[in-house]
Design goal:
By secondary structure, the chain is of the alpha+beta class. It has 4 helices and 5 strands.
């Protein structure tokens, strides 16, 4: 169990819905949540250290995490000061390529 400074993850229902449609995503998404919850991210570079392929989308203020060997994209807002990660959506790589994010 982590400290109160660890990242708190919200929006796991989004993951559950995606995993229901894409069962192969369940394990890598669970792993993402487990790792994120154990992390402390005071700023974006710390998140990128935990997940090196993470990108920041300045137009939307979101972070884009590559999940499952680049098969899926988890898009979330992160409040670094409050240590909150709010999952907005999860997409397949193909769906992400069609989105305007």
């Amino acid at each position: 169990m982590g400290t109160s400074e660890d990242v708190r993850v919200f929006g796991e229902a989004v993951i559950a819905g995606f995993a229901k449609r894409h069962p192969a995503s369940r394990k890598p998404l669970r792993r993402f949540v487990t790792i994120a919850r154990a992390a402390v991210w005071p700023h974006f570079p710390a998140a990128k250290e935990t997940f090196p392929t993470t990108d920041y989308a300045p137009a939307t203020g979101t972070l884009i995490f590559n999940i499952g060997g680049n098969k899926y994209r988890l898009i979330a807002r992160v409040d670094f000061e409050e240590q909150l990660l709010v999952i907005q959506t999860v997409l397949t790589h193909q769906e992400y390529d069609r989105e305007d994010l």
